[in-house]
Specification:
Elements lengths: L3 E8 L4 H14 L3 E8 L7 E9 L12 E6 L2 H7 L3 E10 L6 H4 L9 H7 L3 E5 L1 H8 L5 H10 L6 H11 L5 H12 L2
Parallel strand pairs: 1-4, 4-5, 5-6
Antiparallel strand pairs: 1-3, 2-3
Length: 190
């Protein structure tokens, strides 16, 4: 199988590292060679956080170059726009509609861009945008928006739902398991 690439992008504290562990667990359980690389920006200060996941028969490097990602999962709208150049032609963009003001917007030096989803659609990109935050709150905790997005990515990958749920069980503490399984189902059923 050819090597496939997934980028997970967001802002520090949104749960991208848990998401990469869940995806990695799914892929490893299916016998793929998997490489994961976490690239931290100023994550503790609300900066970008990017995680690369590559899988296939043999993967030599986790690094994803521009135009190479089969799927980008974005936890925040501006991050989706920021990393779109990494998506390959025919790739899929899955994004939360959540917006978090970056420091230039907070200080008044810039404005948050408008109509991001429409601009991305106008580029001919397959985009699924969902209010993952609201769905996570419906599941019982806003912090589960990352797992809502795992439900969405599961719809673009050909692995059985039970494999995803087993990966969630392997990666989430028992006391948060029911909440996260509900968040996954809400994302999967969009």
């Amino acid at each position: 199988m050819e090597t496939k690439s997934i980028m997970i992008v967001g802002v520090g504290g949104q749960g991208s590292l848990l998401a990469s562990r869940i995806i990695g667990n799914v892929l490893l359980s299916q016998g793929f060679d998997v490489k994961v690389s976490e690239v931290h920006g100023m994550s503790q200060r609300g900066g970008s956080v990017v995680t690369y996941v590559k899988y296939g028969d043999k993967v030599y490097s986790p690094v994803i170059e521009k135009g190479e990602a089969d799927i980008i999962v974005s936890f925040e709208l501006l991050e989706a726009a920021r990393w779109i150049s990494y998506l390959k032609k025919g790739g899929h963009l899955i994004t939360s509609t959540q917006t978090l003001d970056p420091m230039p917007v907070i200080t008044g030096a810039a404005q948050y861009p408008e109509n991001i989803i429409e601009k991305i659609k106008n580029l001919g990109i397959d985009i699924i945008a969902a209010d993952a935050l609201a769905l996570a709150e419906e599941a019982g905790n806003a912090k589960a928006s990352n797992v809502v997005l795992m439900g969405l990515i599961a719809s673009k990958m050909s692995f059985d739902e039970s494999i995803w749920k087993e990966a969630i069980k392997n990666c989430v503490p028992e006391k948060f398991l029911e909440l996260n399984l509900k968040a996954f189902d809400l994302g999967k059923n969009i």
